[in-house]
Amino acid sequence: MRTGRPRSFDRDEALEGATAVFWEHGYDATSIALLTSALGIGAPSLYAAFSDKRALFLEALDRYLRTYGAFTERALAEESNARAAVERLLREAAAAYSRPDRPRGCLLITAATNCSPQSADIAARLRELRAVGARTIEDKIVAATRAGELPAHTDAHALATFYAAVLQGMSAQARDGAAKTDLERIAEAALQAWPSAASDGTDDRAGPAHK
Amino acid sequence: MRTGRPRSFDRDEALEGATAVFWEHGYDATSIALLTSALGIGAPSLYAAFSDKRALFLEALDRYLRTYGAFTERALAEESNARAAVERLLREAAAAYSRPDRPRGCLLITAATNCSPQSADIAARLRELRAVGARTIEDKIVAATRAGELPAHTDAHALATFYAAVLQGMSAQARDGAAKTDLERIAEAALQAWPSAASDGTDDRAGPAHK
DNA sequence: GCATATCTCTAACGGTCGCTATACAATTGC
DNA sequence: GCAATTGTATAGCGACCGTTAGAGATATGC
């Protein structure tokens, strides 16, 4: 067994708590004092377990994406139909962003919206990860278009950017206090922009999703 | 004439500069040092002219809403047709959020997304102003519904919340580096959710905007 | 028991935060 | 000219920032 005085707290529990604080206040506005008081541990213990604030945030982010935020990848991977995947994505986001037992909105979207110049790299990292997510949606749409599920002239990039924007808007609305049903209605409205299968690419209603 | 040593800078120019800094970094992440170096004036001059950081922000916010952000109110007030008003609102937002000579996105939407507990009142104020904006859209939709411009069963609150979310999503996308054309395509896609005039309230395509 | 290893606590580091006292500069009124 | 008034520059306030040294606590190995 490992020698020395054992840690007085559960590391994963602390990481969970830190995730919640970062989720609520974002990277810059979360101070070490806020973290230590929320976790009930001293600063030296926190530093011994997680190196420093930046590393702790990145680990919390990673954990978030593998748990609370994993529904996005799952929806896109598990649904074979692209429209069903996006619908599930939006509906699960409506639920995930408004859960009463968790901070509202999405950590990936909100945690580094306002940041000082010295944490610009954190903001850049989150932006990059959001771009990966948007790209995953776009790839799904491209594949569906090739499979004939969508009109041949579908502008996958524009459509993916639209749904990425809707997710960001839903996160913002959740933070502004929107109810789960409000978010669900946003999701339903956004699905109206999905190009109809009957479209031949000249249909005005599907305009923005075509070139 | 006014006695004493004259101010060495133009107050309104300084306010303009401060607006840009707050717009870029948000309230909390904007330090006095960042402001004074950007404006080229000393801290005592800034405090003499604007009281303190909070008052300066609120004044910059007020100025922003009367200038850069005024297009929202204008679009809703000047267009008699609700659909035309929302379309103009979204298109002007696409342009306003991506102007190369200004910070990207919307100050009202982004300036207090991440904030420490001690600036919670600033965040609350911005949230309140956003709610007023959403309410203005909702009122426009209610009036249009009464005028027969929209189906009688139109859910004005849901539709207004959707477009408020789209604006927030467009602002986020602009901050993430989306091009003006990307934002325009988001606007076009969002307009697909507008209930068709021919709808009788049982049309599935207009579902989310009806009760 | 004792050495060793690891964690926790108190206290404090240098740096930056928002903000301001004080001294000096520049103007008007007379 | 000189008093009065107001802005600017330097320098520093107390508070908090992220972070860590040093001392004490608590486990294992033998």
Brief descriptors of the model:
211 residues, mainly alpha, 10 helices, 62% helix, 0% strand, disordered C terminus, DNA-binding
Account of the protein in words:
- The structure is a homodimer of 211-residue chains.
- Chain A is mostly helical and 211 residues long.
- Chain A contains 10 helices and no strands.
- Chain A starts with 10 loop residues before the first helix and ends in a 20-residue tail after the last helix.
- The C terminus of chain A is likely disordered.
- At the A-B interface, α8, α9 and α10 of A face α8, α9 and α10 of B.
- Chain A binds a DNA duplex (30 and 30 nucleotides) through α3.
What's the N-to-C terminus distance of chain A? Answer: 64 Å
The ordered string of helix (H) and strand (E) elements of chain A is: HHHHHHHHHH
Count of individual helical segments of chain A = 10
What is the tally of beta strands of chain A?
Answer: 0
- Beta strand % of chain A: under 5%
Based on secondary structure, the structural category of chain A is mainly alpha
